[in-house]
Every structure is written in C-alpha cells, then in structure tokens.
Amino acid sequence: MAGTGGGVSPSVIPALPAQTPSPGRPGCAELVQGHDWGATALGPREHWDPAVTATVELVLASPMPMAYTHGDGFLLIYNDAYADLIGTRHPGALGRPAAEALGDLWHSRGFGGAVEDVYRGGRPSLEAETPLTVARGAHGRPEQAFFTRGHSVVRDRRGHVTGVLTVAAETTQVTRRLQNLGELTAKLAGALTIDDVARVVLGYTMTSFDLDHCTFAVDDGGAFRYVRRIRGEMLDEADERLPPVWKRLANDPRAPIVAAAQSGQPSFVPDGEPLAAVASSRHERRIRALAALPLRTPLLSGALTIGYRSAHAWLPAERALLSAAAQLVAQAAERARRFEAQHGTAQLLQRSMLPEHLPELETFRIAARYDVGVDGNAAGGDFYDAFRLVDGRLAMVLGDVAGHDVRAAAVMGQVRAALRAMALTDPAPPSVLAGLDRLVGSLGAESRNEEIFVTVVYGVLDPADGTITMSSAGHPPPVLRRAGRGGEPPTAELVKVPPGAPLGLGGRWQTGQVRLEPGDSILMFSDGVVERRGHPLNDGLDALVAATAAASSGDPRNLCSLATSAVEGSTDDDVAVLAVEHAVAMSRSATMLVPAEPTGPSRVRQWMTTRLREWSVPEPVVGAAILCTSELTTNALLHAGTPAQVHIDLNAERLLVSVADTGTRGSVIRAHADTMSSRGRGLGLIEELSDSWGTDPTVRGTTVWFEMLLPRTTTD
Description:
Layout: H1 28-34, H2 50-61, E1 66-70, E2 75-78, H3 80-86, H4 98-102, H5 104-107, H6 112-121, E3 125-126, E4 130-136, E5 141-155, E6 161-170, H7 172-189, H8 194-209, E7 213-220, E8 223-230, E9 247-249, H9 256-263, E10 267-269, H10 282-285, E11 289-297, E12 300-308, H11 316-352, E13 364-371, E14 382-388, E15 394-401, H12 406-425, H13 429-446, E16 454-462, E17 467-473, E18 479-482, E19 491-494, E20 512-515, E21 521-525, H14 537-549, H15 556-563, E22 575-582, E23 588-594, H16 600-614, H17 619-640, E24 644-650, E25 654-660, H18 670-676, H19 683-689, E26 692-698, E27 701-709
Helix pairs in contact: 7-8, 7-11, 8-11, 12-13, 16-17, 17-19
C-alpha cells in the first residue's frame, strides 16, 4: 500500500535541484516547487517520506528521462527530459494521476501496464526495447521513438512500496541505424554498377550517421578513384540519371583512406587532424574525427571514410555497425564489378551489330534508340537499321529475334547483314522478306531441334514524295503521326500493314503504303515497347499511339525517347525504336568538338551564341539553349573525361541540341575536375527550360539532347 510518510521536518528537506528548462517555459523543478501537493495523495511536501523526497530529487537532477509514479493512482512527477517525451501533455500532467494525464500513451502496449506490475509485484523490471509515439518540441509533432525502460520500486521508511521509479534510455538512434543497415542491404542488392553502389553508400552513411564528410574509394588499374559527399555542398549523386563524379586518388599512404585500402586495417581517430597531411581543401582540414574502413574482397580493394568536424567517440557498438556495413559494401562492389565486366562485353557485342551512324537526308530526319531490358547483363535479339539504296531511296527495318542471350544476338547479326545484302540487290519488301525467310529456315535446320523465331517490319522510303512501301513478318505495325493542319492537333494511328507470318515459316508477304506529308513521322518499335506482363497487348499499343499523338513535336529523337516510356511498368525485354520525320523545311546544322578542358564550356557558349544569332533565333531561346548546352557539356566532360561533340539543328519549328561523349566513366585529371565541379542545377534545369529532352546510349558513349520549340512567327 502506498504511503505518504510523515513527521518529516521541513528543515531536513533540501531545496529541489534546478534544471535547464526548455526555452519559453519553467523547468520541472520550479513547477514541482510551486505545486500544491496538499491537494494530492502525496500530501504537503513537509510530510513526504524521506525516500520519496530523495527519489524526486534524483528524478529532477537527472539528464535522462525519469519519472516517479506515486501510490495507487500513480501520481506523476517527472523531469525536463521526460517532459520533452510527452510533449504537449506537459505541464498539465505534472502532479496528476498518470492514466488521466497521459491517456492513450499510458494505456499503450508495455507502458502503464509495466509500471502497475512492478508496483503491485514489488519487483524491479527491465523492459525490452519498445517503440513509442512521442510528441517532441513546442509543436508537439508525433514521431516514433524507441526506448528501453527500467522500473524500480520505491519503499518508505517502513518498507512499504510507495511508488515506482522509471528510467527511460532512448535507443532510437541505435535502432534506426540497425534498420538503416537492413535497408542498406536491400538497396545494395539492387545496385548493378559501381556508380550505383557509390550512390547507395554515400546516401546511407550521410543519413544514418549525420556526417560532415564521407568518401568512397575503389581500386582502378593500380590506383584508386573516389567520390565523396560533404555536408552543405551540392551533390553530384543527387540526380540518379547521371553517374557520380569520380576523381583520381593520389597513392599517398599518409591518407587514411589509402592506408585502410592497402593494409586492410580500420582506423578510428576520435579527435585530431586526421586529414592534415593530405588535405586539399579547407573542408578536409576542419575534419577532427575520422573512421577509415577497408573494403576488401578477392577481386576488389578500396575503403570508406566518414568524418565529423567535431570530436566524436567511436563507441564499440558503432564500430561494429560500421564494420558490418563495410563488409556489405565490399561484397556489393565486387558483384558490381563482375556485372560491369559482363555487361560491358554483352553490350559491346550488341551495339557493335547496330549501325553507328544513320543516314542524313535533306528533308527527312532519322533517329533510333536501343535500351537493354531489366536484366541488362546479356546481348539480345532486337535490332534496327536504316541505309541508302542504290537508287537513293531509304531502306528502314526493325526486327526482333526471340531470346535474350548471345545466340539471339548472333542470329540477329546474321539477319541484319543478310537483309542489307538482299535489299541492295532487290529492295522490294516481299523479295527481301522471302530471302530472309529462307535464311532463318536454314539456320533453324542447322540448330536441329532449337526453334528460331524472328519478326521484322521492313519498308522503303522514297524521298521524292514521302511514300513508304512496307511489309511485316509477324511484327507489330508502326505508328504514324500526322502533324496538325489548319489549327487541328496532331493525330496518331497504327499503320495498316498487311499481316504476314514470322520468318522461317515459309510465308508470303504483301505490301502496304503510307505517305509522309511534311511534318508527319513514322515510328517503328519492338514488342518490348508495348508488352507488359498481365496486361493485354492492345493496352500497350493504345498507350503508345496516345503518347505519340500528344508529343510536343514529331522530331524522331523526341519520339524515340517518348516511346521507351510511353507504357507504364517495366519490361524484361530489350527495346528498339526507329523513327523518321518528313521535315517541313530543310534544317540548318552545325557541330563543334569540345576538348576535355576547363575552358570547354565557355568555348561552347561563345560558339553557340554566334551561330544562333546568325540564324536569327529569338533571344529568349538563345539564352535558354546556351544555358542548357553549357550544363550538358560540363556534365559530359566531367563524367566521360573525353572530348564532347555538340550538335545543333534548327528548322522552322524547333531547335534541337545534342551533346555526345565517347567515354564510360570519369577520367578527367583532378585539376580539371575541380575547376569544372561547380555544376549548376543539373538536369532539372534542362527539364525546366526545354520542351523535351532525353538520353540516348550509343555504340561508344552517351548522347544527351534537348528540344526547344520556336514561336510560330519565326521564319527560317
């Protein structure tokens, strides 16, 4: 039974300890001092039992969240740290029965019930970690926190249980770090490349450990390359459509990251100047605490460093967590390195079988795109081609060999090469498809019981009048986009091509015709564009037709980019698209090769300004185009480390700018990268200023392009 004690002289009750209250409100010690306890079960302070007085003193003096609940009604007394946990319930909860004051919090799982059990059983208890919803701060916003709480009985002078002392140790940070470690594992499982691993690692460490500095380094041809994040600086990793900017790391053993990578031993500096010997910036000289963790596997060596600008004690639990994270990162980096090697070989094989350059015609523009499927680790059978015939007409084809392996790619290469040879002899679509049918049948016979399934749509364009004569061997029909005329919006529809059997089945093929008027476009595509698991094929076709009609322009590059994302959901298949536009008028074009030097972007700006003003492009378009081109050029030089090629194409409707690189990862020397690393606002700037944009993988490198529509009053 709870008691209040008695007969205690006020002179032996020390003053309650002062605490530092939250700004704008009195502290709990002051509130306890001024509370009318005579109206409560505790009674006047001068009658409190010495054990109760000592317990209240302990509670109010502690920096940890502590509370004392008294008697059968669990009258509540707590300190400032505990007040922060109950949020807006303070100060009204002080001196009131806990169930009444805390309401649903008291009745939540493992909270009030645990206190009541200790009070009635008379035995202390240590709770396992429990999630609680608390309301912190002046605004009282609810958030989930984790606590381990200990409950002890408080006995009066006669040995009777008078209340329960609760001490709460918040473990939110530790718990969240462990949860984040689980999330790290899941994210690393989906990281296919070293760039992906770098993004995941830097994001995890900066978020989980609230860092000022983080560096991730891996070996690269006898040296190391690294990418880092610094608190408060613009992050290259913020935009996942671009790879991180890697820099070369001097092989200096005084650098903690190099020492960890080479020795395989971690190091932890709680306070000092760990980067002083190798610091290249003011930021690095300000780092006082640093952990360097090796990343070692049979095929990879590297290291991860994390640092703070203030002293930091690397506790054993934190070191163990970091070591576990480093092992996960090392394994993921090795898997990524294996994938990159396999992926690079497969894609080199795939792209080497596709045309490196497409024909250039006076009033017809051509573009194509090839995207790997979800696997991305094998060559596939999708292909496209466009080439001039002897009589000046244009042959164009898009096909698909069933399968997603080297064998499918090999058959694709044979079919594409044979098609060119046959078309240059007799370009009529039925003749070409008949010859390919015999080839595929022969290949199938050689493969014994292995079936070869090939579909193709093939057409011949006559530039004189825009007529396309085409046949289909089991392939989806192309999409025809008609430009809006007389104020009408553009329209799109599937071309009515007579259906024919896939190659190798001995079929007969008929031809259909369609005419491209100035402004019209045609889009050929593989089935990976429109097929989605669990959805009818017609849904995908309808979505592609609708997206084509709604495109900002009929530019072939724009249509190719749009087609690859027109249907919702992902596809396991490769995607190939080929588009041709009948231009309203001949366009003007110019190309500049930009050296991989810090002066490269400024040279592009000067060249473009001169060229676009010579062509009488409206000044608002000139300014926006130069800003976007400068951004893309800087990105290309940083990420590829090779010269970039800038191409501008202007017609009466739009300005198209593309920036192409010929590299796969950054190798710009450090001085150049540092000079160019002030990068502006990234691809978000392109999205904001252009009407459409996209990225096109090529046989050697990547092309990023954007399109800006011109005012209708502008003439060529």
